[in-house]
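Workshop exercise sheet. Pairs work together: one partner reads the sequence aloud, the other fills in the structure field after running the prediction. Swap roles for the next sheet.
Pair: D.N. / O.F.
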Amino acid sequence: MHLRFFGFKDNPFKASPASAALFIGRHQEEALAHLRYALAEGEGFTVITGERGVGKTTICRAFLDRLEGGTSAAFLSAPVATPRELLRRANAAFEIPADGATLKGLIDPLNDFLMRRKMAGGKVVVFIDDAHALAPEVLEQIRLISNLETTREKLIHLVLIGEPGLLGTLNSHALRQMGQRVSVRYELGPLSEPETARYIQHRVSAASEGSPVRFDPAAVRVLFRYARGNPRRLNTACEAALAVACGAAQKEVTAEAARAAVDDLRRLEPAAGGRRRSALGWGAAVCGLAALLAAAAIVGNTQKGGGSSETARGAVDVGGGAVVRKPLPVALMQAGVQPPPAAAPGPAPLEPAPARPAAQEKPPAPGTAPAAGSSIRPLYSVQVGAYLVAENAAKQAELLAASGYAARVFEVVDSGGRRWHTVRIGDYPSREAARSCADEFTRKEQLQSIVRPYGRF
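Structure field:
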């Protein structure tokens, strides 16, 4: 009823928006940029994570809609129970005839298809949704598919989409080989309050035949507090607020209508879940405790920071000189800053010859940077984030600096002309020393890291 009352030609807050109604905010643009980079230049796996309802599937499908004709793509959305089902569904998506009696009968035709696409100059990408729910044997089969390659390059690019625990699974001991191959990673975060206002305005404008319905700023604040920037919860709340305004014959959504809608939704939530919701509440409490423990581990980190300076290579040091032991700054907490979300993308570098240190000096121990004034030349850096928006990189660097890391932001332009702001936490004279630091960082913080050439992407 309220669709006709407000003059909508379509539901403005439906779960799967048309391309014209898709809202591109800060996180959405970052995610699209990481996907573009991964398909153009990255190797290994791409991992897109985020809380349930934040829009992971929506933005990945939008990326697929924008792919050029030379790319063959498949999107596996429902949970995949077995390795055979994974291969069977991938073959069906590409219309590959295959004998499903054995794994070999499924993978050989897929390999033949990939070789033919490569020879024709095309690319193949497979998106696998709900990857956090996949069994270990299915993840292992995905790793084996990623091994299909020529002598020079991979034949297929795989994008795993899942909730934040996915990376922890991939970095587990049993799947560490897979976790080490994650070359591009991004965590999709919630909308900010200003983005929430723009999101609502964008959706109602795209769905309106005439002048779009107005949401009062006070109503937007009520809806933002309820949804906490989660688009799925926001869609539900906005539709409920429209229904309340329609029932009151109001042509705009007021704060009173928004509060009434939110109150109704909150009253319905406990009743709908019953005992299952109570179990989920206990699970959320346990997860919250784990998050607090993880934050305490970050604050208690004992790595030393480097002094603030601007280097000749365009890197800006953000961390302080001594180890800083303090909680996340209040300003960042109020801004809703999340822990560092992105593992840096980038092509595998050519390995330069290791520098030979002077006879009287010893290389730094693994996990520590060369001492100030040392003649040991750094050849590798540990990179823990890559962003198109400079503010995002600065926030991550400040978070790490507050935890005792010598974080700095290094700017670089890729082959597509895009300027990336990468976050690095240490420079080392050898790949082994940098890898040791990266592994230790990932183990302690449960965040992705990657080794990159010093002064390069």
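Discussion prompt: The longest helix spans residues 255-299. What would you look at next?
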